[in-house]
Amino acid sequence: MNFLQTPVTFPNPRTADRNGIVGIGGDLQVATLVQAYTKGIFPWFSESDPMPVWWSPPERMILIPGEEKVSKSMKQVLKKGTVECSFDEAFEAVIRNCAYAERPDQDGTWITEEMIQAYLKLHEAGYAHSIEVWRDDLLIGGLYGVAVGKAFCGESMFSAEPNASKIAFIKLCQWLKDHDFKILDCQNHTAHLESLGAYLVKREDYLTILQTAVSLPGIPGLWSL
């Protein structure tokens, strides 16, 4: 097991153990997080963990922007235009809603207050972004993630109404496609993401796509639809 010290230098993600753990320790500073995402590594830990745990799973859930699946029923929902979407207008509200969202397949949340504060700084630095779904000025869904180069690494999503997170995801995919992003990293498999077109690839295939994506110039600062 690699125990990381501050300042952090991450090992090659291919050295992860069989569970996908690259290392333990270090910090959640902006430079550390950017370095991690650029290498295909992300933090995931709970309040009971004494320090950050860094992951690069042997399989990764990804989607190439433009290849998302939009069902007939979702096309009708989008066509109705009863909701509005935005980028980066309520990042903190989105991440806190994601933290509080009930997830039947998880015991508690990995989005601790320490993580929230770290990603707020990442947002202020122009790397972390949110997409919001509104109905009558009420936030009903959204997601957030991290952009490095032309890769977007999705972190979490929430819905206060049916289909709200799906709308956020589809709008994000369309925007990423329009701006020539090469990959949407969805991290771990869920049936929800699979229904939207995401699929599992081996770590090596993921890292190959990621290497190309992060070498391209990104879009810094706040995003807008």
Report on this structure.
This protein is of the alpha+beta class and 225 residues long. Helix content is 32%, strand content 26%. It is built from 7 helices and 11 strands. It has helices at residues 30-38, 72-80, 91-100, 113-124, 164-178, 191-195, 203-214, and strands at residues 3-4, 21-25, 42-43, 53-55, 59-63, 84-87, 128-135, 138-148, 151-159, 183-187, 199-202. Strands 6-7-8-9-10-5-11 form a 7-stranded mixed β-sheet, with helices on both faces. A hairpin with a 2-residue loop joins β8 (138-148) and β9.
Q: What is the strand arrangement across the widest sheet?
A: 6-7-8-9-10-5-11
Topology as a string of helices (H) and strands (E): EEHEEEHEHHEEEHEHEH
Assign an overall shape. Answer: globular
Structural class: alpha+beta
Give the rounded overall mean pLDDT.
93
Which consecutive residue ranges, at least 5 long each, have pLDDT under 50?
none
Estimated helix fraction: 25-40%
Number of helices: 7
* Percentage beta strand: 25-35%
Report on the biggest sheet.
Answer: 7 strands, mixed
Q: Give me the Rg, rounded.
A: 17 Å
Number of distinct beta strands: 11
Quick structural gist:
The chain has 225 residues and is α+β, with helices and mostly antiparallel strands.
Structure characteristics:
seven-stranded mixed beta sheet, 11 strands, alpha+beta, four-stranded mixed beta sheet
Task: Detail the topology: elements first, then pairings.
Blueprint: E1 3-4, E2 21-25, H1 30-38, E3 42-43, E4 53-55, E5 59-63, H2 72-80, E6 84-87, H3 91-100, H4 113-124, E7 128-135, E8 138-148, E9 151-159, H5 164-178, E10 183-187, H6 191-195, E11 199-202, H7 203-214
Parallel strand pairs: 1-2, 9-10
Antiparallel strand pairs: 2-4, 3-4, 5-10, 5-11, 6-7, 7-8, 8-9
